Amino acid sequence: MTEVKPVTIVMVEDDEGHARLIEKNIRRAGVTNEIVPFLNGSSALTYLLGEDGTGARHGGRPLLLLLDLNLPDMTGINILERLRASDHMRRMMVIVLTTTDDPSEIHRCYDLGANVYVTKPMQYEAFVNAIRQLGLFLSVVTVPEVA
Prior knowledge:
The longest helix is centred in the C-terminal third of the chain and has 17 residues, at 124-140. This protein has one domain (13-140): 3-Layer(aba) Sandwich (Rossmann fold), CATH 3.40.50. It is built from five helices and five strands, in the order βαβαβαβαβα. It has a five-stranded parallel sheet, with helices on both faces. It has helices spanning 16-28, 41-49, 76-84, 103-111, 124-140; strands at residues 8-12, 35-38, 63-67, 93-98, 116-119.
């Protein structure tokens, strides 16, 4: 039997107060997974896609992305597009966390492969439940890695 790797949560949120609040609520819900925080899109993309830009560096590692759309250096939409263009990252679970409640923006995120879209200020019960559900999904289902 293969070992189940714990899901690493990657959080891209430029507002440090929001980032602390998100992490606090995740911890309060009993989620103990590693959280890797980023304040901008460029550093998050470098971490996710690696220096070669392919995402192969995380080969098969379960990742969950918490993504703000409004970042200082690029939009969350740009990040989603880049991840979905990567053979290694296109199946990564993504929860969009943003203040934007524009229906066209919401549809665009889902069209680009977001798994959950949550507007801030958020109902943390629903948010934490979404993280638990996606984490459970990732622990039971093995997402195939592209050869």
